[in-house]
C-alpha cells in the first residue's frame, strides 16, 4: 500500500524530477520518515553508507571538513553512494528537521533498476558539482576579502601615521582642498588596482553604464526632495536665527570666498566638483560598499553593514579636516549607499552626488555657515 503523504513529499522534492511513478513508488517502499535535532550528523564522510535523504522540513548544512559549503532546505535532497569516483561531504542538521530516509542499497544491488540507478547517480554527481562550484565561489570571496583587508589596513595605517602632519598642514596653510584631492586620487588608485586584480568584473563592483538613462531619471526624482529640504533648512536658519539674518538665501559666491568670485572660476570649480563626485563614488560605493557586500558572509544585515562600514571608512578619511566634516561626509553617504544598492550602478549615485553638492555648496552657499 503506497502512502499518499510520502508520495506527495517525493513529488515535491527535487529528487522526483525525471522519475516515473513506478520509480517513486519503489523509493517510497524503501523510505522511512525520521526526525533529527539541531547539530545531529545526518551523513558522516568517514562512515560510508548508501543513503538518500529528502528534506521534508527544516534545513541541513553540507560541510567540507568543518566548513559549510551550502544549505539544503525543504524540497531538497542529500545523498551518499558507495563509489570511489564521488567525493563524500558530511551533512549536519542546522535546526530540528524532518527527513525522509531512502535506503538505496536494494536499488543498487539489482540490475532490474538500472535506469533508476543511472538517474540517482546523475543527480548526486550534479549536486556535488554544484557544491564544488559554490565552494570555489566562497573561496574566491574570502580570498578577495582578505586582499581588500590588506589594502585597507595599509591605507589606514599610512593615513593614521600622517594624520598629524595633514592636520597641521591644513591648520597652517588652510589648504584642505589640496589635501583632499591628493587623498581622493590616492584612494581611487588603490581601489582601481584592487578591482583590476580581483576575480570579479568591474560590472560586479557597479562600474557599469547599463540602464544609465533610467538610473539618472530615478536618481533625479529621489534627489529632488533632498534639494527642497536644504532650501527650506537654509530659509529657516536665516529667518529664525538672528545671527544668520544677513545671509542671502542664494549665495554662489560663498564657495569662492577665499579666492574671490569670478564666473570662469565658478564654472571651473563646479566642473572639478563634478569630476571628483564620480571619483568619490568610485571609492566609497564601487570600491568599498560593493566589495564588502560581495565578500562578507551572507546574512540579513549584510547590506546595512556594507553601507554603514563603507561610509565610516570613507568619512574617516576626512578626519584631518575635523570631526564635524567627517560627520557631514558620513550622513549623505548613507543615502547614496542605499541608492547605489538599489541601482547597482555608479551612474545614478554619481549624478545625485553632483546635483546635491552643486545645489548645497555652489548655489545655496552653505559654506558661509562655517565662517560663523
From TrEMBL:
Domain Cyclic nucleotide-binding: where? 15-83
According to the record, the segments passing through the membrane are: 142-161, 173-194, 219-241, 261-279, 291-314, 320-339, 346-366
The answer, when asked if Hydrolase is one of the entry's keywords, is yes
Signal peptide stretch: none
Q: Which domain of life is it from?
A: Bacteria
Give the GO biological process terms: CAAX-box protein maturation; proteolysis
Q: Which UniProt keywords apply?
A: Activator, Hydrolase, Membrane, Protease, Transmembrane, Transmembrane helix
The family database entries (Gene3D superfamilies) matched by this protein are listed as: Jelly Rolls
Task: Tell me the organism.
Answer: Halalkalibacter krulwichiae
Q: What is this protein called?
A: CAAX amino terminal protease self-immunity
SUPFAM superfamilies named among the record's database cross-references: cAMP-binding domain-like (SSF51206)
Per its record, what are the GO molecular function terms?
endopeptidase activity
Amino acid at each position: 500500500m503506497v502512502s499518499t503523504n510520502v508520495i506527495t513529499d517525493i513529488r515535491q522534492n527535487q529528487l522526483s524530477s525525471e522519475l516515473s511513478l513506478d520509480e517513486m513508488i519503489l523509493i517510497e517502499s524503501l523510505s522511512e520518515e525520521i526526525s533529527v535535532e539541531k547539530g545531529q550528523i545526518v551523513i558522516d564522510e568517514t562512515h560510508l553508507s548508501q543513503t538518500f535523504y529528502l528534506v521534508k522540513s527544516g534545513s541541513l548544512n553540507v560541510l567540507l571538513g568543518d566548513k559549510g559549503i551550502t544549505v539544503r532546505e525543504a524540497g531538497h535532497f542529500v545523498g551518499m553512494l558507495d563509489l570511489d569516483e564521488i567525493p563524500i561531504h558530511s551533512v549536519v542538521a542546522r535546526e530540528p528537521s524532518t527527513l525522509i530516509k531512502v535506503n538505496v542499497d536494494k536499488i543498487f544491488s539489482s540490475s532490474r533498476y538500472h535506469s533508476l540507478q543511472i538517474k540517482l547517480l546523475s543527480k548526486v554527481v550534479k549536486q556535488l558539482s554544484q557544491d564544488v562550484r559554490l565552494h570555489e565561489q566562497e573561496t574566491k570571496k574570502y580570498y578577495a576579502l582578505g586582499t581588500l583587508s590588506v589594502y585597507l589596513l595599509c591605507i589606514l595605517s599610512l593615513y593614521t601615521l600622517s594624520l598629524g602632519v595633514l592636520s597641521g598642514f591644513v591648520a597652517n596653510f588652510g589648504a584642505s582642498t589640496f589635501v583632499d584631492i591628493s587623498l581622493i586620487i590616492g584612494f581611487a588608485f588603490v581601489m582601481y588596482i584592487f578591482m583590476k586584480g580581483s576575480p570579479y568584473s568591474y560590472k560586479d563592483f557597479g562600474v557599469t553604464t547599463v540602464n544609465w538613462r533610467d538610473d539618472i531619471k530615478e536618481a533625479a526624482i529621489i534627489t529632488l526632495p533632498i534639494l527642497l529640504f536644504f532650501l527650506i533648512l537654509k530659509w529657516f536658519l536665516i529667518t529664525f536665527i538672528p545671527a544668520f539674518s544677513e545671509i542671502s538665501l542664494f549665495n554662489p559666491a560663498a564657495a569662492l570666498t577665499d579666492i574671490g568670485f569670478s564666473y570662469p572660476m565658478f564654472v571651473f570649480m563646479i566642473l572639478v566638483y563634478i569630476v571628483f563626485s564620480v571619483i568619490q563614488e568610485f571609492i566609497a560605493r564601487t570600491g568599498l560598499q560593493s566589495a564588502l557586500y560581495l565578500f562578507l558572509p551572507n546574512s540579513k544585515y549584510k547590506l546595512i553593514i556594507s553601507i554603514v562600514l563603507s561610509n565610516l571608512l570613507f568619512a574617516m578619511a576626512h578626519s584631518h579636516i575635523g570631526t564635524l566634516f567627517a560627520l557631514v561626509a558620513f550622513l549623505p553617504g548613507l543615502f547614496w549607499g542605499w541608492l547605489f544598492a538599489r541601482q547597482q550602478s555608479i551612474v545614478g549615485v554619481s549624478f545625485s552626488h553632483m546635483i546635491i553638492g552643486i545645489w548645497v555648496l555652489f548655489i545655496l552657499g552653505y559654506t558661509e555657515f562655517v565662517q560663523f
